[in-house]
Amino acid sequence: MSRRGLIVVRNGVTHDARVLREAATMAEAGLEPLVLGVQTTTERRRRSVEAGFPVLRLDPMASWRRTLSRLRPGWAVAAPDAGAAPASTSGGRVAPPAVPGPAPGRRAHVRRLLVALDFYRQAIGVTRRLRPAVVHCNDHNTMWVGVAARLLTGARVIYDSHELWPDRNGRPEWRPALLAGEALFVRAADLVMTTSPGYADVIARRYRVARPAVVRNVPAGLPGGAPEPQPPDGDPVAVYVGGILRGRGIEQAIDALPMAPGVRLRCIGPGAGAYRAELARRAAQRGVGNRVELVEPVAPDAVVASLRGAAMGLMLIQPVCLSYELTLPNKMFEYAAAGLPMVVSDLPVMAGITREYGCGVVVAPADPGAIAAAMHRLLDPRLHEACAAGARRLAAEVTWDGEQARLRAAYAAP
């Protein structure tokens, strides 16, 4: 019987490129991977195959909904979003009635706690049945599964911190509890890894542990190689790819457009309908509504191809929290793989790489005027080609093959 591996994440998996790359690497290391995710408002399938690997999605509120329905018919609790996908009224779903009782803030806190408890109950049950040799826990909100696996089955546990969880954008939990939990997690895990050298430095200093391994979010090799460059069709396009979320500089990019005549903005990624509508209103108010596109996400292996024809990539992360300040987003490597010059926030890690490779222009992220000026500069053919060459050099030197070697070694260890 082959050795089994379990990858745990609290999202719908479909658009999580890092998790799907983990599954492929696990298989190459001789493990039989299963990805354990959650059902969301936009991904309700319990089982599926993604990128050739089986996915099992838990519904952490199912048992609570059944209990509440028996206690009081008609009293239901909404399906979980797991923090990964916005609520939706499309597809014929009817929102359940509001739960009476505590104030909305308290109710949301109680609901998050119930979701977390039921997720851990179900996920630990899967772990006990599967008895995997390796458990790869993606982020703080899955790591109690790893602790239980270590105690109950003796599995090798990897804690993969995609961000600084106690210092992330929109953190609702009590920070001291998050810090205490992570202090345990980094000691319970056989290996700690993260996505940014900035995060690795903070984790090592904060918890007085060995510096975590850094496995950057680099796209896997593209079938047939990188796509051929395409000349812009019409007006130059500044593209953003990633979550349509606050703190990502989308508002500032819209505000820059009136000062960058002729430049269009295309945003590709998942986001809540209400926030998308807010961005559309903002664009209309600034007179650039016809120059802003909000595009639905594409499959992870199609992201780089979706960037073809753009003039530049935007990476305008706002320093709204320490996690954002020290981030090294996967979009930097996706833009590089597409050969796109970049407009990059002047934040330590991403700006450092931009200057090292000469792949873009560094700007003050909160200044629309500076963003517009950078867009103009990158439309100059000489600077555009110089930054595009830097992006191609970054893509050639920082590859998934190199990052994957560290991950494969972790999976193959006895």
TrEMBL record:
InterPro entries: Glyco_trans_4-like_N
Source organism, top-level taxon: Bacteria
Keyword Transit peptide: no
Chain segments carrying region Disordered: 81-103
Pfam families, sorted: Glyco_trans_1_4, Glyco_trans_4_4
UniProt feature, compositional bias: Low complexity: 81-96
PANTHER family: D-INOSITOL 3-PHOSPHATE GLYCOSYLTRANSFERASE (PTHR12526:SF510), GLYCOSYLTRANSFERASE (PTHR12526)
Protein name: Glycosyltransferase subfamily 4-like N-terminal domain-containing protein
Organism: Capillimicrobium parvum
